[in-house]
Amino acid sequence: MNFTANPLEREMKRRPRPQAPRPDKPPEGSRCCGCPYWRGIPCGSCFQSLLGRPGGR
C-alpha cells in the first residue's frame, strides 16, 4: 500500500542490500601503498603523484 503518488516510495520500502566488500590493501612496499584510489589493481597513472603536486600538475 502506497501513501503517496511518489514513484520512489517503493524504493524506500525495500530492504537494503549488503555492499560488496572493499578490496584488500595494496602490498606493502609497492608504489600503490597508501593510495586512496586503490581498487584492487594498479592504475595507469599514479594519482598519488598528482595529489602531491600543487595545482595537480
Would you write up a description of this structure?
The chain is an all-alpha fold and 57 residues long. The chain has a domain at 31-57. Helices cover 19% and strands 0% of the residues. It is built from 2 helices and no strands. It has helices spanning 9-13, 47-52. The protein starts with 8 loop residues before the first helix and ends in a 5-residue tail after the last helix. The mean pLDDT is 80.
Short note summarizing the structure:
The protein is mainly α.
Q: What would the principal axes of the Cα set say about the shape? A: elongated
Number of helices in the DSSP assignment: 2
Number of strands: 0
Pattern of helices and strands: HH
Cα(first) to Cα(last) distance is: 55 Å
Major sheet characteristics: none
Helix/strand structural class: mainly alpha
Beta-strand fraction estimate? under 5%
Indicate the mean pLDDT. Answer: 80
List key phrases describing it:
57 residues; mainly alpha; 0% strand; elongated
Topology:
Layout: H1 9-13, H2 47-52
Region (Disordered): 1-30
